[in-house]
Amino acid sequence: MLGVDISSSSVKLVELARDGEDRLVLERCAMEPLERGWITDGNIEKFDEVAEALRRLVKKSGTRTRNVALALPASAVITKRITLPGGLSEQELEVQVESEASQYIPFSLDEVSLDFCVIGPARNAPADEEVLIAASRKEKVQDREGLAEAAGLKALVVDVESYASRLAAGRLIQALPGSGADAVVALFEVGAFTTSMQVIRNDDVLYERDQAFGGAQLTQLIVRQYGFSQEEAEAKKRSGELPDDYASAVLRPFVDSLAQEISRALQFFFSSTPYHRVDHILLAGGSSPLGGLAEQVIRNTNSACTVVNPFDGMEVGSAVRLKKLMREAPSYLTACGLALRRFLP
C-alpha cells in the first residue's frame, strides 16, 4: 500500500516494504508540486488538475502498487475518546459507538463516514475499554477516494494527517534517550502556509495548534527582494540558485522569524497546560531543513532540536536517489506515516 500525502503545495508518495530480516525498506518516494489555490484548507478546489498531478506522481515514482492510504486534515475530522463496557462484541460496539457519536457530531449520521478503534483498557476503570471515534463529512472522504480513482488508484485507508505524522514520528521518538519514555516532544511541521504543532508524551497528545506561517512567506520575500515571478522564486528557492546576498538579506531574517514563531507557540503551550518545558523539538516539513533553523530554535527555546528524517534506520531501495532524499526527507513525514499503515493490523 502506498502512502500519499496531499498538501496545499505538493503531492507526496512513499512506498515501504520489509526485507527478509523484517527491517523496513524505503522502496520509493516522489513529490509533485501543486499550484497555489488547487488545495485550500484541505479542500480540493481544482479536482482535475490535482488528479493529473497525482497521475504524474505515480508514473514518476515507477510503482506498480495501486492500493493507497490517504489522509484528511484534522480540521475535517471530529475525533473523540469514549469509554464503553469491556467484552462487547463487534456488533454491540458498533451500536454503542453510533449512539455515542450522535451526541458529538453536529450532522446527521447519514451524512458522515464514521469509524472507531478500541485503544485498550480504560485507565481509571480497567474493566471498561477506551474507544476512539473518528467522523468526517462523507463528501470530504469521497473527494479523496475520487482523486485516487481518477489516478488509477484504490483508496483502502483514509486517515487523519496529524495521526499519520505521529505514527511516523513515533519511530523517531523511540530513538531518543531512554527510548523516548515520558519525554515531552514538540513536533512542528512547517508547511507552505501553515505550521502545525503537536506536543506528545508517550502515546498522548498534550496539545495541538496551527499557526498561519510557513514556507510560502519565504517565497514572497524572494519575490519582493529580487523582482522574480512567484513561479521563478519557488523554483530558485528549491534549486538554491539565488543571488549572493540571499543568505544575509532574505534567508536569515526569515529563519529568525520562523524560530520566533516556534518559540511563541511553545509559550502558548506552557501558559495553557501544567508543563513548563519540552525535552525535544522535532522539525518536519519543506522549510524545516533551512540553514540555521534548528540552531536558532535551540537558542530561542533552550531545548534539544532535530530536523527529522522519517526514513532514519530504514534500508533504502535502489530506486531512491539518496542525494535528493536527504534534501527532501523532512517533507515526507505524513506520507511515511500513511505508508506505515500497511504494517498495522
From TrEMBL:
<dbReference type="GO" id="GO:0051301">
    <property type="term" value="P:cell division"/>
</dbReference>
<dbReference type="InterPro" id="IPR005883">
    <property type="entry name" value="PilM"/>
</dbReference>
<dbReference type="Pfam" id="PF11104">
    <property type="entry name" value="PilM_2"/>
</dbReference>
<dbReference type="InterPro" id="IPR003494">
    <property type="entry name" value="SHS2_FtsA"/>
</dbReference>
<protein>
    <submittedName>
        <fullName>Type IV pilus assembly protein PilM</fullName>
    </submittedName>
</protein>
<dbReference type="InterPro" id="IPR050696">
    <property type="entry name" value="FtsA/MreB"/>
</dbReference>
<dbReference type="InterPro" id="IPR043129">
    <property type="entry name" value="ATPase_NBD"/>
</dbReference>
<feature type="domain" description="SHS2">
    <location>
        <begin position="1"/>
        <end position="169"/>
    </location>
</feature>
